[in-house]
Amino acid sequence: MAILVVAEHDNKSIRKATLNALSAAQKLGSDIHLLVAGHQADEAAKAAAQIASVKKVLHADAPQLAEFLAENVAALVAGLSKSYSHVLAPATSSGKNVMPRVAALLDVQQISDITAVEGPDVFVRPIYAGNALATVKSKDAIKVITVRTTAFDAASPSGGNAALESTPAPADSGLSAFVSREVSKSERPELTAAKIIVSGGRGMASGENFTKVLEPLADRLGAAMGASRAAVDAGFVPNDWQVGQTGKIVAPDLYVAVGISGAIQHLAGMKDSRVIVAINKDEEAPIFQVADYGIVGDLFQIVPSLVEELKK
User: Which of 114, 124, 92, 113 is nearest to 7 (CA)?
Assistant: First the structure.
């Protein structure tokens, strides 16, 4: 049977997380269909048809799908799922919102946050905050899966010519309604897609120090800015900066951890980074166990010195 991937998009283009999920789907089979659900998202559907690994694009267009409300999207996906052996979505905040509902509607168990595919019904997923990997086998007729995007390379966004097919959307469930959205705008790269990330922790001591100390370093490196849960909980920075098991999972080429001790839940979100640089005054900090390069010292002296060196 075919494989269905639920796309994330901005009505004009397909987000990179979907391309990662498509790579996971390719390990399950070649007959891959991509669902683009939304309202006035024709451009996104056309972009989806250009993805090399996609054989068919299902385009569901309806006002009740405009804001990707989980109840409405889950009903749509569950209705389509009976024609598929596997249903996948990226393990993003959106995917984590929709897919458990899909699994419940189908009365199957969700297979969450997979990092490898070993067979059509055998998958690898992290447990214990990433300190162990579990190999799981599912006997469900339909496998409902979320994909850890950092574990799979992105599929090519071009070179395809998939068939584009309209599919009807179910009626509005009436269980939820879109009220408003507050979006923080930044010229910096998106955290989950950034190649370089500069993150601060409790050691930054205040939100003002993020601005004074870390921002110049991020500016010099062209980096996104992140934070540990401790820094977010202390109110130093916004919640959407949080990296970790309960935040965003990232795997940039370079991750600079400043004033971060390295709690397990934070390490689970960034330890797959290609190169990790840690700056901390505590030489026993757990972050040094995963760091490729470590600097022990006062971050308020070290970081400005790094910025000056980068100016040369």
Answer: 92
